[in-house]
């Protein structure tokens, strides 16, 4: 979905974009990671691993976010937000508090989970935490071999532990995942154990592109990718 629309068009579709969920509670996992629990009628929503929801953050601006947890019977769902910089999405999510109402679209997008692939390898950053949280229960339930690689800011390096994630490695966000040689030397490539794995690459566009290039050159596994953000690009 586009990240912004003219105000006249937003006004035209105003009734369909009216608030449809409310905030139940909020929690800062770190100074820059905020988890929000929403409540609404989600009985007809299809929650697939990799799908995203569009959230209206101003009269004319919209942003995509991935649900980390949902319970249709209770009508609740959680989203984990990376609060950073001066982006309109970050600013809006930072201000949300209990009982606030807003518009959230039904989930849609690209499916990432393939239950028939035994080995699953996931790469991402702060923007990927919701995807990982939604995927972890399935990986454990179906006894997959799995591992997560995260590139995180120093302030967020403890977040995976606070989210009770498992089988992960945290790397400092310093541009290393833009270096093909450095990626080639990662532990995952020093063994044949992951040669047939499904690689799910998310997060920063440049990091995703570089990691994907290395995988394709090595002819390793099956690749799915989705860039969530790019420096200087609004509303990706």
From TrEMBL:
Gene3D superfamilies: Translation factors. Residues 16-114 form the FAD-binding FR-type domain. Coiled coil: none annotated. SUPFAM superfamilies: Riboflavin synthase domain-like (SSF63380). It comes from the Bacteria. One of its GO terms (molecular function) is oxidoreductase activity. PANTHER family: FERRIC REDUCTASE, NADPH-DEPENDENT, NADPH-DEPENDENT FERRIC-CHELATE REDUCTASE. This is Flavin-dependent oxidoreductase. The lineage of its organism: Bacteria, Pseudomonadati, Bacteroidota, Flavobacteriia, Flavobacteriales.
């Amino acid at each position: 979905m586009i990240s912004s629309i003219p105000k006249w068009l937003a006004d035209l579709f105003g009734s369909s974009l009216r608030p449809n969920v409310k905030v139940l509670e909020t929690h800062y996992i770190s100074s820059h990671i905020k988890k929000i629990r929403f409540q609404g009628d989600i009985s007809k929503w299809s929650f697939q691993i990799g799908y995203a929801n569009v959230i209206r953050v101003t009269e004319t601006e919209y942003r995509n976010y991935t649900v980390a947890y949902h319970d249709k019977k209770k009508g609740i769902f959680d989203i984990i937000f990376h609060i950073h910089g001066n982006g309109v999405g970050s600013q809006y999510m930072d201000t949300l508090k209990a009982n606030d109402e807003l518009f959230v679209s039904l989930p849609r997008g690209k499916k990432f989970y393939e239950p028939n692939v035994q080995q699953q390898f996931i790469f991402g950053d702060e923007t990927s935490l919701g995807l990982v949280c939604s995927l972890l229960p399935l990986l454990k339930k179906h006894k997959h071999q799995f591992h997560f690689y995260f590139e995180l800011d120093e302030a967020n390096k403890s977040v995976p532990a606070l989210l009770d994630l498992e089988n992960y490695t945290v790397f400092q966000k310093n541009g290393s995942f833009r270096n093909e040689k450095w990626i080639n030397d990662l532990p995952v490539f020093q063994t044949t154990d992951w040669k047939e794995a499904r690689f799910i690459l998310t997060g920063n566009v440049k990091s995703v592109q570089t990691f994907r290039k290395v995988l394709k050159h090595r002819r390793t596994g099956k690749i799915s990718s989705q860039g969530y953000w790019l420096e200087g690009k609004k509303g990706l």
